[in-house]
Amino acid sequence: MIKAAPLPQTYLKNVAGISVTPAHRRRLESLDLIEVTPKPRIILELTDKGWERAAQELGAEPPARAGTTGGTLYVVLDFLRRLIDHSGTRADDLFRMQIKADEVALTPQPVAAGSADPVTRIRQAYHGLAGGPGDYVMLADLRAALGDLPRAEFDAALIQLNQERNVHLVPESNQKVLRPHERAAAVHIGNQDKHLIAISS
């Protein structure tokens, strides 16, 4: 609900730290709360009923064993519920809002080779490939879009981008689906090959 978009299970596992097991997915599907795309790349999306159920949780009491972190979360959820009620904004409309510090960032312009640093070129190529902010893009596709950028410069730029909070480099959770060129396009960070990138802003 917070992302207001279909999410790959890779994001939930590697970025949000949320483990959604096959049993969890089946239960949520059986309750008609989510739709799940088939393998190889599992994508989860809220149904209309799922949106309604998630919105109800905004005004719920924290579970008995929520703990400090859970209690804090429900304080924030309660604030969101009051904001929604006060403004008359629907929950799905609120979470679909894209707030940008600079509106120019919404319409990146192509940059010719050699006219910008590698980090800027990767960011702009990403926005040209991604369906929207925060969507995952295969590094293989990104490398193909910047074929003139030497591998060493490309990898160094990815490592630099990985330090930013709004950039997520993650491995493909289902390694069996990777094609040879997708494996070859990975960047090695922290003793792990990363195959996908998402930039949320």
Shape: globular
Q: Return residue spans where pLDDT drops below 50 for at least 5 consecutive residues.
A: 100-111
Number of DSSP E strands: 8
What topology, given as strand order, has the largest sheet? Answer: 1-3-2
Radius of gyration from the alpha-carbon trace, in angstroms: 19 Å
Strand and helix order? EHHEEHHHHEHHEHEEE
Helix content: 40-55%
Amino- and carboxy-terminal Cα gap: 18 Å
> DSSP helix count?
9
Kindly name the structural category. Answer: alpha+beta
Q: On the 0-100 scale, what is the average pLDDT?
A: 82
| Strand residue content | 5-15%
Explain the overall architecture.
The protein has 201 residues and is an alpha+beta fold. The chain is built from 9 helices and 8 strands. The strands form 3 sheets. Strands 1-3-2 form a 3-stranded antiparallel β-sheet. The longest helix has 21 residues.
Write the layout of secondary structure elements.
Layout: E1 7-8, H1 9-14, H2 22-30, E2 34-36, E3 43-46, H3 48-57, H4 67-87, H5 91-95, H6 118-129, E4 137-138, H7 139-145, H8 151-161, E5 167-170, H9 180-184, E6 187-189, E7 192-194, E8 196-199
Features:
single chain, alpha+beta, three-stranded antiparallel beta sheet, globular
Short description:
43% of the residues lie in helices and 12% in strands. It has helices spanning 9-14, 22-30, 48-57, 67-87, 91-95, 118-129, 139-145, 151-161, 180-184; strands at residues 7-8, 34-36, 43-46, 137-138, 167-170, 187-189, 192-194, 196-199.
